[in-house]
């Protein structure tokens, strides 16, 4: 699905990060939004999803309008300054050069987060603190990794992550809750995680099923990396969570200058996952096949 670009812009499997850990780092807001040669493709897919079934990819509680507008204002300030060749703001409208689309800002007065999402490759989620913790109160989620906005909308962090190993029955949930409380407008953070899929589709609301694709004769494998950022909205006090998806085929290891080491790193992390972690990532039955493919790409012998 993705046109040519730099393979593996992020490599959390290279030993710098560990799966199922928080792994947050300070975020330079100059690097908040990531844009590459796939911008037009991502935005076209977002527009298609909104047109097909908007309620599947967008939801917002009524009292989030000001927070949504705050997110849009941040992007309208950020994008023309950091990507002047791609975004132009004039006469109450914003134009995207890569797609030729022009959006009038006032046309989205009842759903500013929708326009915000149609401008960037990131998905955008607003979290608000309540009695049960931070809840998902607004979101434009077009490219989920095996979860759906309909399923998680309105839920607090513990319920959203109820199937993540170690989140509610370990220390991770408490750590994440403290992190959310400590985020300030001046201290945004970011993190990465990886998964493996049998296709390069961006919209993946359902659980992974590599086994089914193998049975169908499809043996392609893809590394899916999420780049997530968290920042406190200065006016509303809500937390904005962004998710940027990068998808690369296993074949990209062969053409990457550091491909063998990266393939070996991913293999090592895959083999270190316990049973619950493998099940969560949908890799229980395919682990050995994937490990063998990575071993070959790493140039290692059995």
Q: Largest sheet, if any?
A: 7 strands, antiparallel
The SS-based structural class is alpha+beta
**Count of DSSP helices?**
11
Order of helices and strands: EHEHEEEHEEHHHEHEEHHHH
What key attributes describe this structure?
alpha+beta; seven-stranded antiparallel β-sheet; 11 helices; 35% helix; 21% strand; globular
How would you characterize the overall build of this protein?
The structure is a single chain. By secondary structure, the chain is α+β, with helices and mostly antiparallel strands. It has a domain at 25-192 and 224-246. The protein contains eleven helices and ten strands. The chain has helices at residues 39-57, 65-82, 112-119, 149-152, 157-160, 172-182, 210-215, 252-255, 259-272, 275-280, 287-297, and strands at 25-26, 58-60, 87-90, 93-96, 101-104, 123-130, 133-140, 189-197, 222-232, 239-249. It has a seven-stranded antiparallel sheet. The chain has a three-stranded antiparallel sheet with strand order 3-4-5, with helices on one face. A hairpin with a 2-residue loop joins strand 6 and strand 7. The radius of gyration is 19 Å and the shape is globular. 33% of the residues are buried.
Brief sketch in words of this structure:
By secondary structure, the protein is an alpha+beta fold.
Question: What's the arrangement of secondary structure elements?
Answer:
Layout: E1 25-26, H1 39-57, E2 58-60, H2 65-82, E3 87-90, E4 93-96, E5 101-104, H3 112-119, E6 123-130, E7 133-140, H4 149-152, H5 157-160, H6 172-182, E8 189-197, H7 210-215, E9 222-232, E10 239-249, H8 252-255, H9 259-272, H10 275-280, H11 287-297
Antiparallel strand pairs: 1-8, 2-7, 3-4, 4-5, 6-7, 6-10, 8-9, 9-10
